[in-house]
Amino acid sequence: MKKIDSHLHVWAHDPDTYPYREGTAEPRARGDAEFLLDLMDRADVAGAMIVQPIVHGFDHSYVDDTIANWPDRFVGMCLVDPQAEDPVGMLDELVARGYRGVRFNPALYREGELMNGDVGRALYKRAGELGIPVGYLVSPNHYEEIETLAAVYPETDAIIDHFGHCEPNRDGSAVPEFEWLLAMARYPNLNVKLSEFPRASNEEFPFIDLFHWVHQLIEAYGSDRLMWGTDFPFIVEQTGYAEGWEIIDHIEPAIDPGLYSQILGATCERLFGTWG
Questions:
Q1: For the chain, percent of residues with pLDDT exceeding 90
Q2: What is the architecture of the domain spanning 4-272?
Q3: What is the pLDDT, as a whole number, of residue 276?
């Protein structure tokens, strides 16, 4: 079974060669590609989707070089500046360089501008024309914008990261925002990343308060629209990279073995192409 990490970041520790975003200090956590590759090899992970890290802003040079050095192991999701003079042109240029997805981060838009405004619509539409997925870094406050774009441009594939940034209640009661996330499964081109378990959970490893959510997402979206991601490098200090993959083995009731290959790799390859 091929394991593909659907969500992680890499960053350099050499700001002279690979500058950080203005006002951003060098990250404390180690996030270089060599460190990641060692962890991937130890966990038998074949490949990974690198999401352009905000610490490098819109300078993609480190991710460019990482993909160029290990093209069989890495694929990239770019970050476009929605305040640029020509955001769509920026997207075209990054895709021409080999990026296979684009991240939408509402915090990067002009004040008062929504992702389903003119700029967001143009980028989302163009992503569909280019055949690349949109990845959403959002809270439930932005679900309505996602629904609008999914309805208007159904040909564009999209992925909601990190359980949609929903959080379970400590008493186990229903979470309306998560119910909304489940309801969005009616848009067939929406997918969800099972990622950031340590952030979302109120418990320690293996984060059992999220197990029921995983099963609900499987029921709503199907395993072919879900993908596993560690959120390296953050996962290393949170619980460990290998442990980030072991979570799925602890989920109760156990996930049908036939669904593993979809969630742990095949969905990612369906959306982004094959690794290796």
A1: 97
A2: Alpha-Beta Barrel (3.20)
A3: 80
